[in-house]
TrEMBL record:
Keywords in alphabetical order: Coiled coil
UniProt region (Disordered), positions on chain: 27-55
Stretches of the chain forming a coiled coil according to its record: 84-111, 291-318
Descriptive protein name: Uncharacterized protein
Amino acid sequence: MSKNRKRKPASAYQYYQKLTQDFDSLEREMESHQEGQSELEAQLEHAQAKIRASKAEDQKLRQVQWERERDRQLETFVQQRATLDTLRDQTEALEVQELRLQAEVEVLRERQQETSETEAHRIRRLVHERTTLLEDELAKGKLDLDYIAHIVSSARRQELKQETQRETDQNTKSSVKNLVQDIQDRRRRDFEVAEANFQARMRSFQLEKETLAKKAKELQVTKQRALQILSQNQQLVIKGFFDAPRATQPHDDKSRTTPTLDFEEILQSLNQSGAQVEQIQTIDSERNSGRRELADALQEARETLEQGDQRIEAIKKRLLDRKNEAQKLGITVNGPGANSTGYDESCLRVWMLL
């Protein structure tokens, strides 16, 4: 019995050391998880800072694009104004030319009248010599009148052509303006959809963050409870061991008074700790998944912005190709700064549809 009494303190002390080692390992594991959680929070803050920087950059990019578009529209307006001034000058020149032609017609009419009167006298003198002289002179006068009528009709056709050209220029300007407005509206809608998707992903990520924080808090409370239970069991074991009487007693009495450890409760606490560790690993994987989704959302927003510029460039290239094809077919398509356009309204509609 004395040998058994000498061994028991060593066995209880080993149990106590084992429990202490388990507590130390649990504390180290909890500290490592807390460090990992702190690192994840720092990464989350860094990601949020990147998101804010990306938003600022996107805002700046939109501002720059808006300023470029405004400058381009102002330049187009100036070019159109110059075109209108040129057309106005041409109209005034045509009016001057029309007045000059009218004056020339009046002069020709007066000359024709004088010639007719002179020729009439000559015809009256020579009618007894050449019977066909009157018919010849009348034919010459008719040819002169036809030539004058041809000049007047040519001037009128030129004036009608200039009026048609002005109407075509107005239609071209309105069509280009509508095309630019459609492109701007489509880019704005694409960007708004991308921004809405990005905001939805951010809200989902925020909800996931709150859920993870709540789970981490519950895990902390559970760990503290487990440590408290283990600490209470440890104190009871030590107290029971040192409070046990050292006098020699029968075997049955000794078995009744010897303090024992509740290994089932300790194993249950350790199992709970293992489950909590597995839950922490699951939370870490979920956070990694949230970061990947956030990165995908940012990449999608960048691709949307890049595709917007590429679409504008593609439309410009297609318009230039159609213009070159029209020129190859013999249809003249002048720019906004040209004096005139040599294509009709049907060609303009085909160009717009293409």
